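Letters spell out the chain; the tokens describe the backbone. To illustrate:

===
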Amino acid sequence: MKEKILSIVFIAIIFGFSIFSFILKDKEISNYERRKLTQASSLKEDFTSNLDDYLTDQFPLRDLFISTSSIFDRYLLSNKEDNNVYIEDDYIVDKLYPLNEKNVSSFINKINYLNDNYLKESNSFYTVIPDKNYFLDEKKYLKIDYNYLYNNLSSNINMEYIDISNLLKLEDYYKTDIHIKQDSYFKIIKELSNHLDFDYQDIFYEENIYSNFYGASYSKVPSFVKPDKLIYLSNDIIDNTTVKHLEYGQKKVYEKSELESTDSYNIFLNGPSSLIEIEDPSSPNDKELIMFRDSFGSSLAPLLIPYYKKITLIDLRYIRSDIVPNYVDFKNKDVLFIYSTLLVNDSHLLKVNIKQ
């Protein structure tokens, strides 16, 4: 009898919540999961195929149930790692472990291939941004051997290395996202100026604050973790700069509409793009910079605008390297490879076809 009652209660709860999902107004976006949710309109397109997704996405208290599961695993079961992330001093840290030796070797080969085949007449450098694991205590958390990684790169890449790893600390990163806060790039830019063809300047920027930033790591932890503040820096130079994307034409340096999208970090240069040209019509010089980069470069590039007439950003995750010379002239340009250790460990994403 007891089992029957429990079964009836369970079924009633499931069906009750399902009915409520039809009655309540649909949520368009889950800030917690950083994605768009399936809408009722999809049922008109294909009721049978989309019903399960719709009921799952619009399930009442969905975020609470997901968060409760995370709380149970992390705090009641005392798992330091849950959903492949750690929490250290309120910072969500995506685990990077183990080191993928094959991908590291591939990264080295790809950078050397690009340097040897395209950049013989360029002023070329590379740097690597550490991920947040770099700052964790190895006695408490699993982390790769960063000294080995950096030594391996510097010993085998045939290009001058700019070391920025000692300039950063955990506080320079967003708590809920993998990226560096934009204002933390100033010390990196100062170091870059010691190598690239520009002189560092103290430039005025206006702070623009968005207080509801749910970063890429947010959905992997309990929902009581507070969102970040995202600060983007602007001035007249940035506001008057032209940004042209290979895929979708002219955009702004800061696309403010992206703040309310599923990924607010896309405010920087409108998010992922294969090739972007940034031109400052008021620049007093004719210097050009070419950056091979991952997503970390999106928030760095705007702060380099005052130093160059033109900046070209190349993301080899979205364009093959053999196509790039059709759009970019590397001769007598500053060239900077800037990647995070996350990308180095996942370098198969870079579309560099090495021809023997």
User: Anything to note?
Assistant: DSSP finds ten helices and 14 strands in the chain. The mean pLDDT is 85. The longest strand covers residues 206-213. The first helix runs from residue 2 to 23.
